[in-house]
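Prompt: Have a read of the protein record below and flag anything odd:
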Amino acid sequence: MAVNKTVANASSVAEMLSAVAHPRRREESVQLHTLFSDVTGWDATMWGSSIVGYGRYHYVYDSGREGDYFATGFSPRQRGLSIYIMPGYADFTELLSKLGKYRRGKSCLNINSLDDINLDVLASLIHAGLSDLERLWPVSPS
């Protein structure tokens, strides 16, 4: 059975954030860290080498595959910020219409800059994504 490539580890979130090469991306990453911490009330955990995750859940698919994954989080990427807020099942069209400029991935939003989005709407999306995920799998703090 396949094993997740991205797993929680003991790497330091603060060290990863301080090592982000681009000064603006580093500043925005710290800002996102504060926002996610405030919205979730949870400590962050590193998942892989570049994802800052908050909370976790254990899933079991009908196929029998199971594992653990972070409930929400973000990753500073070279070309922008990836924000993981949705398990990919709910329709958040109304909130997304108010967010600002983004590109949508399977279970993430990609943004160029925090200046391009409304952070209050992002906070609402984080909360909505966690609520939707909780309907499917129990979510616990990191």
